Each structure stands twice: as structure tokens, then as C-alpha cells.
Amino acid sequence: MSDLPCPCDPAHRYANCCGPLHTGIPAADAEALMRSRYSAYVLGLEDYLLASWHPSTRPQPPLLEPGARTKWLRLKVTEHRAIDDIHAEVRFEARYLENGARRDLRELSRFVREEGRWFYVDGVID
User: Fold this and answer.
1) pTM of the entire structure?
2) pLDDT of residue 99
3) Closest to 24 (Cα-Cα) out of 44, 43, 1, 40
4) Considering only CA atoms, which of 6, 7, 3, 5 is closest in space to residue 72?
5) Contact 61, 50 (CB under 8 A)
6) Extents of the domains making up the chain
7) CATH 3.10.450.50 fits 5-125, yes or no
8) Element at 50 (helix H, strand E)
């Protein structure tokens, strides 16, 4: 897997992009965390998704449905905005197939940094 393209951006290698974050390295910023979360959805890494979700808004598992027929196709980050040192927003578009139908997801995600780690708080779907 380490030499394969990263799901968040095929121009980068997984080992040099989201892979280190999935093994516990803190994300440098909210965009890096958001990209790693997208890759975790692609790869089915539920533990990582839950750990990177802020405890105040984290849902109860299971987050990923066993046997779900969702295939993530691409990610496009359209905006990354630092609000202050500990708050940021990332706007993105993700394309996926669900039960054979193509879908587009557009979201403005909110992030907070605590004790040197970024966490996903919530998002508003456009």
C-alpha cells in the first residue's frame, strides 16, 4: 500500500501523504486532516475516522456500514481557511458511486486543534 497513490490525491504516494497520519502522526493543519479522513473513508479505516473526530460531536460506532456499496472516486479541496490558531474550515467536493449511481458531496467542514492535534468537529453539506 505504501507505494500506491494516495486516495486524497493520486499525484502523491500514500506513504508520504495520508499513510503517516493513519499511523498516528498529527496532521500539520486542518486540510491535511480532512484529506486523511477522506482517505480513511476510501480505505475503510473506521478507527481513524472516530479518533480524528472531536469527542464533543463524535458519533457512536459503527460509522461505516459493513457491506456498504460506496466507492469514493475523487476529492477536490476548494478552500482552506484558518480562522485563528486553533480553528479552521475546509471546503471540499467529493465524488462517489453509491449503489452504481454517481453522487457529489460538497461540504464546509469545521476543525479545532487541541493539544497539538487537529480534530474534525462538524460540517455543513451544501
Assistant:
1) 0.94
2) 85
3) 40
4) 7
5) yes
6) 5-125
7) yes
8) helix 46-51
